[in-house]
């Protein structure tokens, strides 16, 4: 949920795939190098072992959510897609829950996300609440786009959903929408208060 550069108010294109396996390792390695950190420095800052970080970067281990969270904070990785890992699992009958107000917060310039049920890292759906801080499409550097599909329910307030191939869609409390998240999209609040939504992303 982030970015744009309009052509008559419409944003431009940027592709951001949800990391999984090799992609997750590459994202972490590239971000570490961009910040000029060695393996030792990044591992120490994230409070994990150097060998663990090396294995993550080379897709030789599947990190826990807690380790991913530390690396995300250390490397300033703020996209919710970081938590979508579609690796196959033989485990069945899994369950996770989040108490009210106790989700994992990730804030960007345009949204304030609360990630839900974050203990399960190998899952295909990513549920989260979001507060839409943006008030104009000019606040986005480019279209938001990523793999998969998305469902959104407006919980409170009013907003406009901008999408790459459709006219702007005004929405209010109780309204829902389902769309291809590979299509450029972004939301801006139009009510006096920031709009709050429930998003469910499917990788």
From TrEMBL:
Q: Where is this region: Disordered?
A: 1-26
* SUPFAM superfamilies (alphabetical): lambda repressor-like DNA-binding domains, RmlC-like cupins
Start and end residues of each HTH cro/C1-type domain: 28-82
- Pfam families annotated for this entry? Cupin_2, HTH_3
**What are the alphabetically sorted keywords of the record?**
DNA-binding, Plasmid
Check the record and name the InterPro entries matching this protein: Cro/C1-type_HTH, Cupin_2, Lambda_DNA-bd_dom_sf, RmlC-like_jellyroll, RmlC_Cupin_sf, TransReg_Diox_bact_type
Record has NAD as a keyword: no
Query: What name has this protein been given in UniProt?
Result: HTH-type transcriptional regulator
Which organism was this protein described from?
Phaeobacter inhibens
